[in-house]
Specification:
eleven-stranded mixed β-sheet; 16 helices; about 500 residues; alpha/beta
Amino acid sequence: MSELTRDSAAQLAARLAAREVSSVELTQAHLDRIEAVEPAVAAFLHVSGETALEQAAEVDRRRAAGDDLHPLAGVPVAVKDVVVTEGVPTTAGSRILEGWVPPYDATLVERLKAAGLPILGKTNMDEFAMGSSTEHSAYGPTHNPWDLDRIPGGSGGGSAAAVAAFEAPLAIGTDTGGSIRQPGAVTGTVGVKPTYGGVSRYGLIAMASSLDQAGPVTRTVLDAALLHELIGGHDPRDSTSIPEALPPLVDAARQGALGDLRGVRVGVVTELGGDGYQDGVRARFEESLDLLRSAGAEIVEVSCPHFQYALGAYYLIMPSEASSNLAKFDGMRFGLRVEPEDGPVTAERVMAATRGQGFGDEVKRRVILGTYALSAGYYDAYYGSAQKVRTLIQRDFAAAFERADVLVSPTAPTTAFRLGEKLDDPLAMYLNDVATIPANLAGVPGMSVPNGLSDDGLPVGFQILAPAKADDRMYRVGAALEAALESSWGGSLLAQAPELEVSR
């Protein structure tokens, strides 16, 4: 493997700025890596090699001309296939959008291009972001680089696997109930869900509009801060975009890396632990708390009593919004169109045939559930009640943040499970997000930092939650934990990953 694919994005940016390497060389190294490991990992649905090299050449030209460039200019990035990209197929992992090429870019893609980051391609995902394992992709599963027989998390397993397999130094994911953080935990990568409204949703194919949030997937906390600052900030095209500047995320990460957390109160959420959490996950969590304590943080216990109802509330709110959002995929306007094999060709019959063939089982399950929850006579009992629970969870967060600056928990209850192990048990699959869902319901930011290996030799994640619009707090604490862990390991966690067998 080329050393260019091993370095962090910040290190690569420094090498580019020093003219030690060109963006074309760097991008080609990652394209070579993709070619070598993709048959095993299957992280990408589309690779844009030629376009990425053109973007890299333009950055090199501008750097040679002395132009003022973004710090990440020339560093390649991969983008989850739920984010629309002009001229590049965007499928959301679904047959119903197979071959669809958007005529415009999402805001975050515009910002990536304007900053000069070559886009390597689009990453695999659970169909319409509905899943926790990337097994619900219509184009086949992605494999975890740590163990190719295991899942890479979901729905953004492609982005996490691409970063963990050194196919991309940076990636974009989206997080509706944990789809950045849970893949981060099981692949040994850093995954960040920003404050809701902190990164524009314009150009994201919506699943649940009040929950969806795009964010960075990286190998270090500093890299995540650099990417987050690039894609974040106000966007007038998104009515839910926060009309304020982001807090200083990169500065917070650099400060945290110094390892001084004196004066910081870290709250351990009682309800996000205990039964159902793997022994190795609990052990690594307690060890990480000790490291934060050694850095000067005060560890306090906090209770969020309504978190126990978060999973149930989420699986009413999310499918209800998905049912509404996915109504546009009707075989009439764009994407797949299937006409009935016999009988009259009516709008209703075309819609039924198209959705029947175009949507996978998990999407159908959630659309049916959401449609039922919104139906006359059941709306107040189900959707209305779930929204009341959501308010109680938001109040739990507000009370907890009066006692602590950040809240922490394991990111996921277990390490990566085997492919196929939970496909026939939707509830068991949904429980993978039990610790991540509360943040989406409340709109607060969350981060998963790799904090070691469980007894099975697979990565574990440590979740850090901060108040809305205080994303810098989690970057400071995350960077401090990362620095302490890497000091004890003698390097990064991904350096301990087994080398993939490549195709040549």
